[in-house]
Design a protein that fits this description.
With about 240 residues, the chain is mainly beta. The protein has three domains: about 55 residues, Crystallins (Gamma-B Crystallin, domain 1), CATH 2.60.20; about 80 residues, Gamma-B Crystallin, domain 1 (Sandwich); about 80 residues, Crystallins (Gamma-B Crystallin, domain 1, Sandwich). The chain is built from one helix and 19 strands. The strands form six sheets. It has a four-stranded antiparallel sheet with strand order 7-6-8-11, with no helix packed on it.
Length: about 240
């Protein structure tokens, strides 16, 4: 369920495959070199008959989400494998989606602004019914692809904007900065390693916000004003 730089470490050759879920880019040489071919869920019984090299040597998982204008995956659709700052350039509205592979952050407004919602691999057939899962809007306007991360996680959170007030460095999930670190608020942060979700309430509840590596001096930049974030979680299942 992840990248493989050298298939020969597992098989002497690979001349057919079945993609059970997700999307992959396969390569004719090791270390993701040579001719490439995109594969989505389905059966591929004979590479040579497909015009491919007679064996796959390496592969990468490719994040992909499919948006639909209507509920239950109906109407016009749009396949997305990266960030999209304005869905209206592709669809009039988005009422359902299917995450084929990877993880994505959905936004209520264009340009990655407003309320946010985290989606991993699965089917989401009715945005209006997603409120029971914590989604606070019924139409997606923009989205970000969350890159795969391997290694440690580190984030320093600050009580005030512009890295002011009390601070605490996190390397693990924190279900309550008040209970664990006696911090009453979090209004800025510096993400050193990994990708994180921040939640408005303790125990990973309420409105959420995606934080990628970098300095975040004020959460107002993402459309959050007068909002406190009280719990933080690492995004561990990217591309699974």
């Amino acid at each position: 369920m992840s990248d493989c730089s050298d298939v020969s470490s597992y098989l002497s050759r690979c001349q057919s495959c079945r993609v059970e879920s997700g999307c992959f880019m396969v390569y004719e040489r090791t270390n993701y070199m040579g001719n490439q071919f995109f594969m989505r869920r389905g059966e591929y019984s004979d590479f040579q008959r497909m015009g491919l090299s007679d064996s796959i040597r390496s592969c990468r998982m490719i994040p992909m989400i499919v948006f639909y204008e209507e509920k239950n995956f109906q109407g016009r659709s749009y396949e997305c494998m990266s960030d999209c700052s304005d869905m209206s350039s592709q669809l009039n509205r988005c009422q359902s989606c299917r995450v084929e592979s990877g993880c994505f952050m959905m936004y209520e407004r264009p340009n990655f602004m407003g309320n946010q919602f985290f989606m991993k691999r699965g089917e989401y057939n009715d945005m209006q019914r997603m409120q029971s899962m914590g989604m606070m809007f019924d139409n997606i306007r923009s989205c970000r692809m969350i890159p795969m991360h391997r290694g440690q996680f580190r984030m320093k959170v600050f009580e005030r904007e512009n890295f002011g007030g009390q601070s605490m460095e996190l390397m693990d999930d924190c279900d309550s900065i008040m209970d664990r670190h006696r911090m009453s608020d979090c209004q800025s942060c510096n993400v050193m390693d990994g990708h994180w979700l921040m939640y408005e309430q303790p125990h990973f509840r309420g409105r959420m916000m995606y934080m990628r590596p970098g300095e975040h001096r004020s959460f107002r930049d993402q459309g959050y004003s007068n909002t406190r974030f009280m719990s933080m979680k690492r995004i561990m299942d990217s591309c699974h």
